[in-house]
Amino acid sequence: VVNWHTLEKNSVPRVIYGMNPDQLNQTVTGSNEVIVDHIWNTVKLTGLQPDTEYFYQCISGEYKSEVSAFRTYKSGKGHKVRLILASDSQDNDAVNRFTALLKKKYGDDLHNHINIMCHMGDAVSGGGVIEQYENRYYRPFSPLTRSIPVAMVSGNHDVEHEIFYKYAKYDDFANGVDGVNQEAFYTLKVNGVQLF
To answer: Are strands 68-71 and 53-60 parallel, antiparallel or unpaired?
Structure first.
């Protein structure tokens, strides 16, 4: 799933993608919704090959993002998983230092070295203030999140606010454990390793 903010409510968001940055020859359209006064676009890519590098560009009306890349997970069981754990990231300076350190260590192709970022809560200091999501989470982490998938949980500063859950849609992952409230639990497989 690819998500992004725009100002274009009346346009159909789309993602063009392919295995070569100069040949983005596949197109998928999605939907958008208003979260407070922000437009949140969602496009779901399906039928991707495992362990494959893809390049993509987001388009909404006149807006076009830069071309970014990601790598799909490996199929099968028990491959190595390299993940980033983050939490309490309301401080933009610390996030900027963190992303710069990762870029220095792994270069521009982070997606070929890191499989997923797990944010363990408190992405913002006030869960009901939408500008904090954009200014304290999405923009500062964008050098990572444009290429690395993110799993995110709500912390005490996010205050279980409805804004958090409009952004973090995990309905496709809230599955499969008997006796556990589906809305409070999700799981996903990364390179054949089950993450809870």
So the answer is: antiparallel
